[in-house]
Design brief:
Number of helices: 14
Radius of gyration: 22 Å
CATH topology of the largest domain: TIM Barrel
Number of strands: 15
Order of helices and strands: EEEEEHHHEHEEEHEHHHEHEHEHEHHEH
Strand content: 15-25%
Length: 394
Amino acid sequence: MFNLCFIRGSQSFVSDEGVNGYVNPNTLFEPKKGTFYFIGQKVECPLSGSMSPFWLSRNMTNKEWIRRVVEHDPDVPVPYNLSLSPVARQRLEEFYATDDVEAYLDLPIRMTGMQTVKPLYASPEEFGETLTDEFGVVWTTNPIDRGVPVGPCLKGPVLDGYTFPDPQAEYRFEHLEAFCRQNARNYTILWIGDLWERATFMCGMQRLLLYTATEPDFVDLLLDGIADYILRTMDVLFGRFDFDAVALSDDYGSQKSLMISPAAWRRFVKGHLADIFTKAQAAATAAMLHSCGNLRAIVPDLIQLGLDILHPIQPEAMDILRLKREFGRHLTFCGGLGTQDLLVNASPAEVRDEVCRLKQTMGRGGGYILEPGITLQADVPVENMVAMIEAMQD
């Protein structure tokens, strides 16, 4: 239970009656005006431009909100998050007339990663048509997405002569102190890299899959080197910065199943995840795994390893309600809103209905963060993005 806190002019007051963790259904937001209506009475929102329902709480920061959700507290609202491509970000910032949509919407989660030679979104105008990252992988650049790896740095199943980049190079961390300080009231997640996925970039997907059968010792050595890079990155982070969670980006799934067998995943990947998650636990830091596709076969393994948050649980690839029923007591799920069809092709009303359904079903009992099933791309109409946000905040 918490009380509602309002600002009327320059006078603040707290309602006499609490609400059981949810915004009253008779509330409406007008984000462009920064005002809030409570049962027909207009009051000023204390966070200018903010749409977060949790400004209603007297004693709850965004950081505390997400921590309680990860702890499966059933008495707090379902939180929300957005991951935006450059085009989606531009459209929302134009709609809301802001140059910082995360701050404008008061998103409770803020994420960043290490600085890299190749930014996640590298503009061809700035970087040219291709760009080589720290590992030596050549990427295409693209004004609307992250590009694709087109030039593996390893031409065969050998590491002789290859040197991994320095995970503790100072340029990677120069921005993090300011980021963590500026987001002290939010739940902060730092992306620490990729493991299996990085190996696919370095070898090429088809070659790496072949090597798991024909050159297993090489795959072990390669993943050892990548895991060491991640673990040494974590050493720097835990020694210098104050944040809430680390996140590994590592796609294992296709639309219908894992890309490798569960047995092969356990043979090559599971042990490295154990080291990464154990290191996070030792630092009292949550661990999040981003892994697209159908992971159903290894979710029990991820729970065994101590994973805290699984992202983005794509509904086109898995029965996410079944995941919630079977594993919702042990994992926090983040994602679940369809991006392959729903957000692209549905009406705004249909989008709102699905958001409400997910809040009621996936949100039951805590342990759920509502988010699109992958980064919002250029094919999502702005009216559907706005409908989604309004329903998230309702």
